[in-house]
Specification:
mainly beta, single chain, 7-stranded mixed sheet, about 5% helix, 1 helix, 4-stranded antiparallel sheet
Length: about 120
């Protein structure tokens, strides 16, 4: 069982930066691939980024590629999403997720955090 808690959201101006953290408790964090999803008002939840169990490989949605960077510190049981050059269209609730399978982590992960709001003003 893995419990996930996100932090680091907030209000930022367009062009600014934020770093989201996802702290995990429970066992086996290093055995889990991680992902960040987001959901804007009136829109479906979408995958933003994912990372392999070891943290050596990442994937990104086209909309954030080159601006966002996901990392995973297995020693600290924490995953991060560094967001740069933020745009108003990045405004959403951001959720971290975990699963032992990287494929499932990007589609139907077993574990979800409660979400953190990111608002980008123009």
């Amino acid at each position: 069982q893995v419990q996930l808690v996100e932090s680091g959201g907030g209000l930022v101006q367009a062009g600014g930066s934020l770093t989201l953290s996802c702290a995990a408790s429970g066992s086996g964090f290093s055995n889990n691939a991680m992902a960040w999803f987001r959901q804007a008002p009136g829109k479906q939840r979408e995958l933003v980024a994912s990372i392999s169990r070891s943290g050596s490989t990442t994937t990104y949605a086209d909309a954030v590629k080159g601006r966002f960077n996901m990392s995973k510190d297995n020693a600290k049981n924490t995953a991060y999403l560094q967001m740069n050059s933020l745009k108003p269209e990045d405004t959403a609730v951001y959720y971290c997720a975990a699963d032992r399978s990287w494929a499932r982590a990007t589609r139907q992960p077993d574990y979800w955090g409660q979400g953190t709001q990111v608002t980008v003003s123009s």
